[in-house]
C-alpha cells in the first residue's frame, strides 16, 4: 500500500504535494518523492529519496523546485527494496513521462523483458517502472491513447497518476483494485489515494471506479472509460474530519486493519496459488524436493502474534509434509543452544522484519548451518535482506500496535509453504491439494461474512467488558488461535486473560473457574468437537459464562453455551483464519468500551528493535 497525491492549478504545487503526502504517510513510509513540471514547462523535475518524508522535505529545502502541475508518492515497498532508485515517481527513458503507482503489476517481468528487447533500460528493481516505459513506447502524440494501451497490457492492481511533458497542464489517473479519488476545487483540482490528502483544500470529490480514467486540468475534470466514452459521476461531499478520514471513516486504525483483512488475504494469495495445476508459486523461493528430503527438522521462530501464527504453521506443515516442526520463542531460541545444522530449515516470522529477537535468532540458526526462510511484511527489512529465502505478506502498512491483518496473512503464507513442500515431497494427493487450494481462495469472502456480522460480537463485548479475568479454551488448532485471542484482549484492554488447552482443565486449570467467570471456548475442529463440548460442560457446571465459537451447522453447542458465534463452514485446517476474526473484534470492542487507547496500548511498541 502506497500513497499518491497530485495537483493541477495556479499555485506552486510542491507545498501542496508535501502536505498531502504528510496526510498519507501512514500508507507507506520507506521512501517518498515528487515529480513537478517546472515553471517554464521545459522538463519534469523529480526529487525522491529513501526514508521518511522529512528527508524529502530537507532535499527540497536545499534544492527547491517549482511548478503548477505535479504528483507525489509515499511508498510501501513491494518490488525492490527501499532505495533512492526504487522510490517513486518513475520516469520514462526520454524523460517525458513520470508516474506514481500504488499496487502490484503482476506481469511486470514479461513486460520488462519485452521492453528490454525494444532497447529500454531500467534504473530500478520495481514493477512500476515498466508502466512509465510502456507509456512512452505507445506514445505517438496522444498521451491518453498511450495510457489506455498501457492499461490494456498491464495485469494486477494499480492506482496511477501520470504526467506528460507534452501536456504540461494535465494529470491522467486511473485505478483497478487500488483506491483513487479526484478532488474538485476552484481553478485547481487534485488526485489522491485517500481523502485526507486533499481535505484541507476541498471536500468535493469523485470516487473513481474500476477502469475509469480521470483527465484532470485546473479548470476541468473529465472521467472516461477505456473506450474514451464519457462517464457521468456524482460529486461525493466529504463530511468527515481529517483524523477520521485518515482511518477511512473508522474510529481507530485497528478496526480499519481488521476490516482490511479480506483484501490483505487476496493480495497475499495473488499470483501464488494458480486456479489449476499441482503447484504453488513462492516468488522465486528455490527449495527443491532434494533440499526437503535432507531435512530432519523445521524450526519456526518468532515473537508474540507471529509466534502464535507459527504454532498454527507447525500443525499445518507437519500434517501435510510429515516433517517434524518445532516452534520457539525467538527471545529464548539462541540461549538454549538449539540443535540446528545444515539439515534444518529455520522459518522466521516478523511483521516489520526488524524484530531484534527474531533477527538475532535467525542469525544464530544461519551460523549453525541452517537454511533460513523469512515471512515478513516489509520489503528490504533486515530479515528480508539476510534470510536465504523470503516470502512477503502483502498486508500493507499496519499502524495499530496490536497486529491483526499481519497475523492472518502470515497464516496464509504458512499454508502456501506447507502446500508447496507437500507437493514436492509427494505427501499430498492432487485431490486433497485441490480441496485445500479451492477453499483457501474462498477465505476472503468468508472473512467478509464474519465482518458483516460483527454487531453480535460488539454486543457481547458490551456485556463483559468489566470482567476481571477471561479464559480462552481450545483444542488442537483452536488452542493456537485461543493464544492469539487472549493476547489481543490483554494487550489492548488490559484485562487479565489466559489461554489453555481444554484437555488440561482437569490438571489444575479448572481451579480458577468460579461463578461468573467468563470463558471463550473455541470449537471449530470437527474431530475434537465432542471433546470440546464436554470441556464446556465442565466449566459451565462450575459457574462459568461461556461464549463459544463454532462452525455453522454445529448447533448442538448452543445446548451448553450462553452465547454462540458461528463462522462459515470451512476445512478444519483453515479454520484459524476465520476463527481469529471474531476474537480480534471482541478484543477491539472490549477495549473501546473500557476507554483504552486502542491503537497505542500502554508500554507497547509496534516494532520491538531492542532486546
From TrEMBL:
Homodimer. Residues 2-219 form the Glutamine amidotransferase type-2 domain. It comes from the Bacteria. Its main location: cytoplasm. HAMAP family: GlmS. Its EC number is 2.6.1.16. GO terms for molecular function: carbohydrate derivative binding; glutamine-fructose-6-phosphate transaminase (isomerizing) activity. It catalyses: D-fructose 6-phosphate + L-glutamine = D-glucosamine 6-phosphate + L-glutamate. The lineage of its organism: Bacteria, Bacillati, Bacillota, Bacillota incertae sedis, Caldicellulosiruptorales. It is found in: Cytoplasm. GO terms for biological process: carbohydrate metabolic process; fructose 6-phosphate metabolic process; protein N-linked glycosylation; UDP-N-acetylglucosamine metabolic process. Keywords: Aminotransferase, Cytoplasm, Glutamine amidotransferase, Repeat, Transferase. It comes from Caldicellulosiruptor saccharolyticus (strain ATCC 43494 / DSM 8903 / Tp8T 6331). One of its GO terms (cellular component) is cytosol. Residues 288-427, 460-601 form the SIS domain. Catalyzes the first step in hexosamine metabolism, converting fructose-6P into glucosamine-6P using glutamine as a nitrogen source. The active site is at 2 (nucleophile), 606 (for fru-6p isomerization activity). The gene is glmS. This is Glutamine--fructose-6-phosphate aminotransferase [isomerizing]. It is an enzyme of class 2 (transferase). Pfam families: GATase_6 (PF13522), SIS (PF01380).
